[in-house]
Specification:
The complex is a heterodimer of chains A (308) and B (179). With 308 residues, chain A is an alpha/beta fold. Chain A is 38% helix and 15% strand. Chain A folds into 2 domains: 141 residues, Rossmann fold; 147 residues, 3-Layer(aba) Sandwich (Rossmann fold). The termini of chain B are close together. Classes of the chains: A alpha/beta (308), B alpha/beta (179). At the A-B interface, helix 1 and helix 11 of A face loops of B. Chain B: This is Bifunctional pyr operon transcriptional regulator/uracil phosphoribosyltransferase PyrR.
Chain lengths: 308, 179
């Protein structure tokens, strides 16, 4: 199989296992490219991509922009805070106006779940979801799995625990879909109040005790508390959260095996993980960022090749 | 679909030895020369030539690389299928080196054009030469000609030259296939 089964990347839910493998194999080649002294290839010189961000982002936006530029695409950047959206324009109008400037692909982050799916139905362009509310963040999940594959050789059969604010995290949901699709075992760990009601229906285990979760896993993906999405108080204090669900060096060293620590960023140092864990040898946080560019190049390249 | 044998194992072997001698004549000890096989099929020719030069003609050392040109091709989005990449493996800089690009069949010249662009990512070579096992005459889309050629053939557009190697396809043989 040499082609993606989809024309948009709206969520991991819509991908097949073979799509993920194709993305990873393509990303391997791009990883070699971005480690050359000249890091650019001319593949997408006739493609224009608009990055439309209705929500704040640093890592994802920079990573997408860099991936697009390394593929020689023309790039338009748009953030909603400085645009006509403030003047009352609808999403479809905004995007159609951008598309009438002959844009082929849209990378969009939006606070509403399903915004990308809605857009894909109504506009004629290839859409990449860069995060839609608490729904999905597919490229993050892909780069997380890619990083696990790079570090441990394979994803299938590995035990992965996702720790933190599962309820509000699009990274958690996309990761669960991606890991399950590739045959990994997944558990989630966090305060009961931040656990979605039907989480077990996704085929993941729930573990309330952090130590037990860490003893079980090969990889721990630590998530940030999504303070901007917390409408009510879900736990008494940040300090109490850290005591129960924060990973520190002492806890890590007391385990009888060396587990891999991941974090999608941004890190709240001292809350979900301490600095000495984030900067330890077991942490692959910065590898995740590097792999993000290669994986996004692969996704963009494979989707762009389907634009006729 | 008919096919005829263009070159047998014995003929291929003789041609490879002649090409190796020609390279030797121009590049002597290969101190300032690198060989680069173009992926996916040029690497077999490059590997065979390197083996002959090292083992039979006692060249001390040859830098051999493999170059994938997928991301540099000019037909991205123009065909039905997604272009699939293969591995690039060049562990040296080509800056100021003499580069010999090696491919199995030279047809339109577009692959070589892409390879020349791709090569720029690895430095500015002193000069670039082209070696091709089969040169399909009168079918070029671009002004590109080989410096070393194994065999020149006249093939019409609906014919295909298929080069097979023992290490990949089970035997050394070259067919001309009528599609």
């Amino acid at each position: 199989m040499s082609e993606l089964s989809v024309n948009h990347l709206l969520g991991i839910k819509y991908l097949k296992e073979s799509d993920i493998q194709l993305i990873f194999e393509t990303a391997d080649h791009f990883k070699e490219v971005i480690n050359r002294s000249i890091k650019k290839v001319p593949s997408l010189r006739d493609i224009t991509i608009a990055n439309i961000f209705f929500e704040n982002s640093t890592r994802t936006k920079l990573s997408f922009e860099l991936a697009e530029k390394r593929l020689s695409a023309d790039v338009l950047n748009f953030s909603a805070s400085q645009s006509s959206v403030k003047k009352g324009e609808t999403l479809i109008d905004t995007v159609n106006n951008i598309l009438s400037m002959k844009v082929d692909m849209v990378v969009m982050r939006h606070p509403n779940p399903g915004a990308g799916i809605f857009l894909a139905k109504h506009v004629k362009a290839s859409i990449i979801n860069a995060g839609d509310g608490a729904h999905e963040h597919p490229t993050q999940a892909l780069l997380d799995s890619y990083s696990i594959r790079e570090k441990l050789g394979d994803v299938v059969g590995k035990n992965v625990v996702i720790v933190g604010d599962i309820l509000h995290s699009r990274v958690a949901l996309s990761n669960i879909f991606a890991l399950k699709l590739q045959g990994a075992n997944v558990k989630v760990c966090g305060p009961k109040t931040l656990m979605p009601k039907y989480i077990e229906s996704l085929g993941v285990g729930v573990e309330m005790d952090l130590r037990r979760a860490l003893e079980w896993c090969d990889v721990a993906n630590m998530l940030r508390i999504q303070n901007e999405r917390l409408d009510i108080s879900y736990f008494p204090t940040t300090r109490e959260y850290t005591q129960q669900f924060g990973v520190n060096k002492k806890l890590l060293d007391s385990l009888d095996k060396e587990i891999v620590i991941m974090h999608p960023g941004p890190i709240n140092r001292g809350v979900e993980i301490t600095s000495d864990v984030a900067d330890s040898k077991q942490s692959i946080i910065l590898n995740q960022v590097e792999n993000g560019v290669a994986v996004r190049m692969a996704v963009i390249y494979l989707l762009a090749s389907k634009i006729k | 679909m008919g096919q005829k044998v263009l070159l047998s194992k014995k003929e291929i072997n003789i041609i490879l030895h002649r090409l190796a001698c020609q390279l030797l004549e121009n590049h002597e000890d290969f101190k300032n020369t690198v060989l680069i096989g173009i992926q996916p099929r040029g690497i077999y020719v490059a590997q065979r030539l390197t083996k002959i030069l090292l083992e039979e003609y006692k060249v001390k050392h040859i830098d051999l690389g493999f170059l994938d040109i997928t991301f540099y091709r000019d037909d991205f989005r123009r065909g039905e299928k997604t272009l699939e990449a293969t591995k690039t493996k060049i562990n040296f800089l080509v800056e100021d080196k003499k580069v010999v690009l090696i491919d199995d069949v030279l047809y339109t010249g577009r692959s070589i054009n892409a390879a020349l662009t791709a090569l720029q990512s690895f430095g500015r070579p002193k000069e670039v030469e082209l070696l091709t096992l089969i040169d399909r005459r009168f079918s070029r889309h671009l002004p590109i000609q080989p410096n070393y050629r194994g065999r020149q053939v006249d093939a019409i557009d609906n014919e295909k030259v298929k080069v097979m190697w023992e290490e990949n396809d089970g035997e050394d043989i070259i067919y001309l296939i009528n599609r």
